Amino acid sequence: MQYLVPNYYKEFQCIGNKCSNHCCHGWRVLIDPSSHKKYVNAEGAFGEKLRENIIEKNGEYFFKMTDKNQCPFLNKENLCDIYIELGRESLCHTCTTYPRLYNQYADIMESNLCISCPEAARLLLSQKEPLSFLLAEDDFDFRTDVDTELFNNLTLARSVSIDIMQLRPLPLWKRAILIVLLASQIQELLDNGLKDFSSILYDYTTISGLEAKISPYAFMEKVQESKGILTEYFISIVKQVFQSNELTFYTKLYEKYLGKAGNGQYSFLELEKEFNQYYKDQFYQYENFFVYFLFKNYMKTLSVKNLYKTVIVMVFNFYIVKVLDILVWLENGKKLDLSDQINIMSCFSRDFEHAQTKYQLLYDILGEHNFDSVTSLAFLLYTPE
After folding, report:
1. Given this model, what pLDDT does residue 172 score?
2. With contact defined as beta carbons under 8 Å apart, do 302 and 361 qualify?
3. pLDDT tens sequence across 248-257
4. Which of 64, 185, 207, 356 is most buried, judging by how many CB atoms fall within 10 Å of its CB?
5. Are 33 and 169 in contact (CB under 8 A)?
6. pLDDT value for 141
7. Is 342 helix (H, G, I), strand (E, B) or coil?
8. Do 368 and 341 meet the contact criterion of CB atoms below 8 Å apart?
9. Higher-confidence residue: 300 or 226?
10. d(CA 135, CA 133)
């Protein structure tokens, strides 16, 4: 079997109790059958504690979370008592693999590091050079059935999309719009039962072809007022995604600077212009964020057949993170460092990537307000040069 992973993948090591937002709180921990059998047969006082803290729901087993929504085996030093008492080999599958994500297509296993883990987010955001991917092989022979023609063409389209996102001579906003445009055209083919994208991909592989694709959006420079109105409307709609335990802090910042509590004291458009200048040398972090999602989610089109939805949700995610960045930057006296960005992206990922119903809710809400069109997304993404 072949394994495809980001170039920084093997650098990951859990930092244990040094983690700023550890993975032992905030969600349920599913116990796989093999681990459950081991836990219920464990001996002594610790075995009794294990059995007392396992609950069953619909035939599946979970750890009973504490009143603070933490794993009952997270001790006062923020270390795992199961690891300490029974050894690493006794951790359940969820705890052993996180933050690694696995998706298998035919005889290729793709693995990524979920950025809900702050250390995984740090690795992603610290890559100043364009991300690359490494292919390795082992002797394990296992494959899944996929539509080979669609798989091969989606793989090529994803590669082209990642190449576009890493084309740094083009401004980030142009690269993002081009990826949306390509997804839109591919979706038209998919909707018509077609799996061959070669007729449209070539125009996205040359600078002249890319410039021709983006040229219709040059008019946006003359309609900045419309961008401002649309952007603030967008933010007013998606502020409800801040309503969660992970994002409570950002909800307060929104109300303080942009919401009713602060009487809308700032124009977000003006803030964004200033922030873009301040943060322009770190825009590679946003590039990496896009590439992370392209690698992680693009091939899911094999099953859900809705590539356009996948890509525009990725754009929504980026823009919400950017809104959070600007709020924290403002709160910090117009400064934003790597630790701020790690916390923002990991909190957002923890709240959304592990709750697919929120993705659907966000998609439905923004679709109802016509934010799912290429033109609307172009207005949001556009950054004056």
Report:
1. 94
2. no
3. 788 888 888 8
4. 185
5. no
6. 66
7. helix
8. no
9. 300
10. 7
* Integer Rg of the chain from CA: 22
Alpha carbon distance 362, 297 (integer Å):
17
Confidence of residue 24 (pLDDT cuts 50, 70, 90): confident
> Is the peptide bond between 99 and the residue preceding it cis, with omega within 30 degrees of 0?
yes
pTM, two decimals, is 0.91
Structure tokens at 268: 């977000």
> 161 is written with which tokens?
């999309």
Predicted confidence at residue 174, as pLDDT, reads 92
**Cβ–Cβ < 8 Å for 326, 267:** no
Q: How do strand 30-31 and strand 2-6 relate by DSSP bridges?
A: unpaired
Average pLDDT over residues 7-12: 95
Strand partners, 105: 108
Joined tokens for residue 246: 């992970």
Size (the chain), residues: 385
CB 230, CB 366: distance < 8 Å:
no
Residues 6 or more apart whose Cβ sits within 8 Å of residue 179:
161, 164, 165, 290, 294, 311
pLDDT tens, position by position, 191-216: 999 999 998 999 999 888 998 998 88
